[in-house]
Structures are given as C-alpha cells and as structure tokens.
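Hi, here's the filled form for the chain we discussed.

Project: internal
Contact: R.S.
Residues: 485
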Amino acid sequence: MELDEAFGSVGQFGRSQKRLTAFLVLLQVYVACQSMLIVLVGAVPEYHIDQGEIPASTEELARHVRFADNFTSIATEWYLIKHEAYKVNLASSLYFAGLLIGNIVFGPLSDKLGRKPVYMSGLFFDVIFGYVTAFAPSYEIFAMSRFIVGIMNGGMSLVSFVLTQEYVGKSYWALTGSLTNLTFAVGIAVYAFLGYYIREWRFLAFVSNSPGVFFFLLSFMLPESPRWLYSQGNTAEAEDVLQYLACGNGKERLIIKLKPCAGTMKKNDSASGVLNLLKHPVLRWRTIILMYIWYVCSLVYYGLTFNAGELGGNLYLNVALYGLIEVPAFPLCMFFIEKSWSGRRKTTTSFLIFAGFACIFTMFLPENSGFFFSPTLLALCGKLTVSAAFNIVYIYTSELYPTVVRNAGLGVCSMTCRFGGVLAPFVPSMKTLNPSVPFMVFGISGVSAGFLTLLLPETLNKPIAESIEDLQGPVYQMLKNKKAE
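And the returned structure, exactly as it came back:
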C-alpha cells in the first residue's frame, strides 16, 4: 500500500500520535523561553548618572551610575548603557544569526542522517550552552553562548516541527502545525510570568533552560519519522514504525506492507537536498518566493515582539500580552485554511496584507488617543495577524515540498527567516530617526509579502509529493493542466 493509505489504516491521529505530538508541541515552551530570553535578561531598568558628562570608559561609568533595584540584567551587570547599549541588541542578533546557521546545517543533515539523531544532538547542545549563558563570567562568553544556543535551538526546533508533521496523516498537518505555533506564543507568556517572579537574570536564565533536560531525556522514546524512512527506501523500518503507531492506537493485528517509494528507485535521488531546490524550476521559484515570505514574517513578528520592551507601562505585562495576543491566531488559522474558498494561499495573503496596513496606520494615530484607537492596539493587531500568517507559512511550506527535500526546503526558508530575526532587534531603535520609521518598515514588508504569496499554488486537498518524481506524476500533471486551463 501507499504511505498515505497506510496512515489511513494505522490511524492518522490516534492515541500514540497524540502523545508524540503533545510532547513535541510542549517543547515549544522551552524554545520560546530561549528565543525571548534577551527581552528580559537584556532589559535596562531606570538609572541615574551622578555627573553631568557621560563617562567615556565602562570603569568610570560603573562608579557614577545607579540602577533601580527592581531587577537585574546583563545591562546592570556589565553596564551596557549609553555607548555600550548596542551590545544588548548585538547579543540578540547573534542568537538569530545562530538560528540562521542552524537552519542551513540541520535541515539537509536531517534529510540525510534522519530526523531523530539530528534533533537529539541539537537539543543536547542547546541545553549545555543554555547553562553556559546562565553562568557566563563576561559579556563575551554570554554573547558566544547565545550564538551557539541559536544554532542548536534553530536546528532542533526545525526538525521537531517536521517530526510533528510526519508522525501524523496529512489531513492533520494544519492542526499539529498550528498547535506548535500556539504553544510557542504561550511559551512567551510563561517566560514573562517567570521573569515577573525571578528578578535576578542568572537565575531566570537557569530556570528557563532547565526544562530542556526533561525534554532531552524523554526524547529517547521518540521513533524515527516513518515518512523519512520511506523516502530513503527503508521500507521495512518504516513498516515497523507504522506498526508501533498502530499498536499504540489499539490496532495490534494490523499488517502493513508498503510499496517501494518511487523516489528511491534511482540512485541519483540519494543526493536530494539543497541543490535539488535550485535544479528543478518548480522548486526553485517556490523557494525564492517562500524565502522572502519567511523573511518578512520573522522581521515583523520579532520586531513587534522586541518592541514590547520599548512600550510604556509594565515590562512583564507587555511581553505577556505580545505573546497571548497570538492565541486567537490559532482558531482563525484553523477556520480559514480548511475552507475551499480561502485555503492556504488566500488566507496567508490576507493576514500579511492586514498586518502590513495595521502597522502603517499606526503612524497616523496620536499617542494619547485612548486604547481603542491607540498605536499600541494597532501594533497588537499587526502581531496577531502576522502570527497567523507565520503559523500558516510553516504548514504551507511543508505541503509545497516533496518529502525527500522537505527539511532542506524548510531549512532554506528558515535560514532567510533568520535574516529577519537578525535585523528585528535593531528596527525598533530606528525610532530615533522618526517614531514612524519602524512601523513603516514592518508595514511595507507585510504588504509586499502578501501580494507575492498569490504566485504560489494552493495545497488544500492536494496530494503530498514523497519524491521529486511525484511532481511529474499523473496526479500532479493533471492538477497542472487543470490550472493551465
């Protein structure tokens, strides 16, 4: 039988798959704490310099500055203010630069070596260097550890997302993808909650990193992806994993016999990876468009989140609010992307354009216009809709790539996504030029990405390609011909 037919027999989302998915989805709380760490650990409390001129050296500054004692951070420990303030944003950008490298390396590696070993290795070193962050004796060690955590966190979370998709039937990919992104949003609020009660930055970094140990130990129980095994020609091993899932779903007597995957019949397919994204015209154009969409989603998403620290009011409430505002994005996505009149493409386009205009309109509202007409509310609406778009893009991208290059495709798209993350910490600081500049950048980016999404094909209720040959198969040719008509 075909793989999708086997999932129909095993159960597309039975008890065993729910347990595996729940575990990997909960991992996003840990991922969110690592991603948002700098928002609180790098926050700058109120301070006073007891002399007229700003001291030129850090040693001199340390003798004349007095920080409010409501919390500590790397800014208070290493005096990262005034001429040293850029180092906070630099540490954040180094983390996202690490994510970029992690996505480049881990995506193709997991396509070649397997999902589980690459995921386990990334999580192990993520936890180790997370503790290096908490005990860093200097800013340089702190920044270096954030860079390495970024590499491991980015690669590990990418592979774990793919696993949540490949453990279940295709009809549940939207659900598992949305749950992953929803839990990341909740993780931001959990981190704000921890920060509210843990005001010492080293202890906060330690506590935020510790759940990683729990997830690493339990990850040994995860099976390899049956879709990856099947795409590599390991049909017997794929059948064993499917049998394991069937037993967990209460179908012990089920006998599974898979047909050989068409993509493994030729030797040259064993090199499927990043180069195949460039060699095949269909994949090449999809990748270019998706790269820009991912970049914009990341730039706007993280830019608005980091901007929470620039808002007035309670720092911890702002961070939690920017996380919790994403929660409504989950039911919105699940409703629209499964409707034939909207689907993946039109819904992504609408959310990105709405996010762009929400950011642009903030420039025309005065600060004291009340909450319901304030720039803060429009910025939150922009965060909600770009979160919804980001959620769909993960699912949409997974469906646009064949299994043999799916992780490579996700890796390349995530790589460009991290360029947006690298730039995001610096965009809110552009308000020194003009208060409207950050929102203009976010707005134009969102609108342009929304219109580009219309160039991609719809994937709702379409078959999933296992190999690159499947894109030239009769079902796909029929779809292509229908589109041409």
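Let me know if anything looks off before we file it.
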